[in-house]
Amino acid sequence: MKTRVTALDRQSSDGLTSDQIEKMRGQYGWNELPRPPLPGPLGVFLRQFRGTLVLILVIAAAIAFFLGERVDALAIGLVLILNAVIGFVQEWRAETALDALRSMLSPTAIVVRDGREQEIAARELLPGDLVILATGAAVPADIWITAATNVSVDESALTGESLPVEKSENAEGDDSRIFAGTALVKGRAQGLVTATGQATQFGNIARLTGQLSEKRTNLQRRLGRLAQKIGIGAIAIAGVVVAIGMAVGRPLFEMFMTGLSLAVAMVPEGLPAVVTITLALGASAMARKKALARRLQAVETLGAASVICTDKTGTLTENQMTATEVWTAERTYVVTGEGYDPTGRIETDRQPVRAGDDPVLAALLKTGLVCNHAVLQKDGPAWQMIGEPTEGALVTLAFKGWSPPIHQAERLAENPFSSERKRMSVLAQDGEAVRLFVKGAPETILERCTDVMTGAGPQPLDGTTRDAALQSYARMAGRGLRVLALAVRNAAPGDMAEERLSFLGLVGMIDPPRVEVKAALDLARASGIRVVMITGDGAVTASAIACQIGLGTPDVIEGAEIDGLDDEELAARLTGDVLFARTRPEHKLRIVKALQTNGKIVAMTGDGVNDAPALKQADIGIAMGIRGTEVSKSAADLILLDDNFSTIVKAIGEGRRQFENVRKFVRYLLSSNAGEVIAIVVNLLIGGPLIFLATQILWMNLVTDGVTAVALGLEKEEPDLMDRPPRAADEPILGMNGLALIVLFGSYTAAASLWIFYSLLPFGADLARTAAFTAMLVFEKVSVFAFRSLRRPVTSIGWLSNRVLIIAFSVSLCLQVAAVYWAPLQALLKTVPLSLEHWTTIGLLALPLIVVPELVKAVAIRRKSQRPHS
Q1: CB neighbour list of residue 451: distance below 8 Å, 6 or more residues apart
Q2: Among 537, 532, 531, which Cα is nearest to 559's?
């Protein structure tokens, strides 16, 4: 059984039916513009061959082939193909992860279908659909307006016009139409869809909004520049090596191939690609935690966030408003029940009260219904609310008091709520009379009232009654309730002046703090992240909620006070512990800029149209996925799918994990390459035979390194990651510590490989070279465990906690065993079998790469724990 309870019966049509939708879908398709075609599997595979060094290797293979070095040519070709297969697997996974994220960014629309309001994906709209739009909604299709209330539309994306354009149902031409790609900045509208997808005006000149940005992130650009610098150095060193080789009488082709392979060994050209893959997979992990990254930039920037500026309602609180108390000049009522289930009741002295029992209560409940656009729907046992939570609470309250429903025909005009005015008024027919119904913040309503409604009719609002109302407001706000005042007056048609009102009473609503918020705030503080609460509620309510959730008792700065501060004064106030109350959206922009002036990396939440500038200005703009407008979502870097503050903290943890993992695999790759380069250069200076052949160098760097690096990028969050202070936004990937680490690891692996090589050289160059080649690869794979954490021993994070890394490590070693013992690879890589003694020697020399870093980190942690705490 389905029932529907609504404050306003505003439908002029029952909309499309299910049968119509099924028939029309084949004709009109989906309401979306064609996306740029995603590369297919073949395209992704061929993309693996477009790198500069890869192209050079292709040329080198061709040269080797024409010079008769067919085995070398075949070896290079097979290495390139194997490298392409591995790169394809990695990139295809990243592409599919990004495409999955894109599909989650689909906007929604509220429509009437089968005579019932419902929320659907905007891509499902069809011509003839009846659509309902509110302030902040992105217009999902071309729509002909059938009903409008103070509608203004931002058409800048379509026409370039910077000022909003007014629309109405009775206007001529385009003034009665709204178009896809625009957004409502004020009012409410209802209309019929006239065109969808490519048939819209926007379809010819714009691209779909809400897709992930494909621009390179700051981290990718930095790593690209790093790779470029290393590349220049690699070419120079390779040239020197070739010159040295020629000077000591080495064959030209041999030195050309060695120099080329050395350049390949030094240049981590796969770094930007590995970063893209890691960030894409990180974005997928964040989405599973209810944080949807619209831009990969957000994934890395989140890890540096030092301040979170957060809304209160719905983010720190449940966003499940429930009216719990009603105050009038003559009595106080208690309201039972929770949420949007209207089966509770209004009581006084524990006796139920209905609207018909008290004319003042009846007028108050009716005002709450008239000044309202919320809908309650019941489908089975559960109640669903569509609309603003505060308005949903008023509808629920009205039905608990058995107030009669309000119909669309009774409404004549509306002055909608705005964050600047903090009130809403509706002119409506009330029987034979016309009345103006008003709701809003108590201070804004009381100052416009001259009378107070009583059982005997309107009476002058004297100082005593006004003080009593203000005291009740303070009492309710002090308990953390959100308080609304309601008022009414007789009016003439067209009279929308919000003055000379009769005060009806106050409604106190509870929006309880989320259970998990206190722990999230504690974690944020432990991470060195400051939390600043910003709310439109009054100072008393804001302070009460701050105390309840564990923010303490910060100084309260109200919006009016912000207006009186210049930028320097505001920045100075923000150095202290503060929260903001009675704010307007433009205040958020000033707060963000002031914090950034103080050198902070700011994450800012928002949900309204006017929040867009602040979201764009913030280092990380965070939009609400449930209650946020499409405009705010389009401006944001991150969308909270559950509107929950704790999700922000989790996302910051994920951002920190991603940056740490990038730093780990960059240092790991460069330390591995450094060992090869040092070994090759030192060996040439000594004058011995080549320690590594060109094909062996390619095998080490193109086949095995990338897989291990990506696996390292999947390392889980370290236990103390959120106990560390935020990193600086410009903190280097390497730094002096990183360079020292690279030199130490590179020097050891080079020295150990050279020792093995020259120890076995008397037994044959092929055996010595095979052992050194195998040793270097084993050293590189074993050393990855030292890079799993740059601070903590592996014993504290678990040897087997990164299963993908274990698999990559095992596969790499198996490939090397095949390279040593499998005849086809022996021929390609010019290897010979190794004995158990050789493997034992390699294993013993590899042990320090695990043991020494573990001891160093263990000692460092012990010393840190023994330091006296200040």
Answers
A1: 458, 459, 460, 461, 500, 501, 502, 503
A2: 537
pTM above 0.85, yes or no: no
Query: Maximum distance among all alpha carbons in the chain?
Result: 115
φ/ψ of residue 393, rounded to 5: -65, -35
Q: Which residues of 585-607 are buried (b: 16+ CB within 10 A; e: fewer)?
A: bbbbbbbbbbbbeeebbbbbbbb
pLDDT digits (tens, 9 = 90+) for 517-545: 888 898 888 889 999 999 888 888 888 88
Position 6 pLDDT exceeds 60? no
CA–CA dist 287, 304 (Å, integer): 19
173: burial class by Cβ within 10 Å (0-12, 13-18, 19+)?
A: exposed
At residue 766, does pLDDT exceed 90?
Answer: yes
Percent of the chain whose predicted confidence (pLDDT) is above 70: 82
Does the annotation count 311 as an active-site position?
yes
| Bridge partners of residue 454, in order along the sequence | 457
What is the rounded CA–CA span in Å between residue 783 and residue 669?
10
Of the residues 72, 129, 142, 311, which is catalytic? 311
Q: How confident is the model at residue 870 (pLDDT cuts 50, 70, 90)?
A: very low
- Domains by residue range for the chain, with CATH: 2-30+109-205 (2.70.150.10), 41-98+214-290+650-866 (1.20.1110.10), 301-317+514-643 (3.40.50.1000), 342-499 (3.40.1110.10)
CB atoms under 10 Å from CB of 798, counted, come to 10
Beta partners for 555?
Answer: 578
3-class secondary structure, 260: helix
Helices (H) and strands (E) in the chain, counts: 30, 31
Q: Do the beta carbons of residue 157 and residue 186 sit within 8 Å?
A: no
CA pair distance 680, 696, nearest whole angstrom? 12
Q: Which residues of 844-866 are buried (b: 16+ CB within 10 A; e: fewer)?
A: ebbeebeeebbeebeeeeeeeee
Instruction: State whether the Cα torsion 532-536-538-541 is positive or negative.
Output: negative
Mean pLDDT of the chain: 82
**Quick check: 605 and 638 in contact, CB under 8 A?**
no
Angle at 568 between CA 563 and CA 569, to 5 degrees: 55
Q: Please give the structure tokens belonging to residue 97.
A: 């992860």
Tokens of 704: 């095995």
Q: Which DSSP string corresponds to 511-580?
A: -PBPTTHHHHHHHHHHTT-EEEEE-SS-HHHHHHHHHHHT---PEEEEHHHHHTS-HHHHHHHTTS-EEE
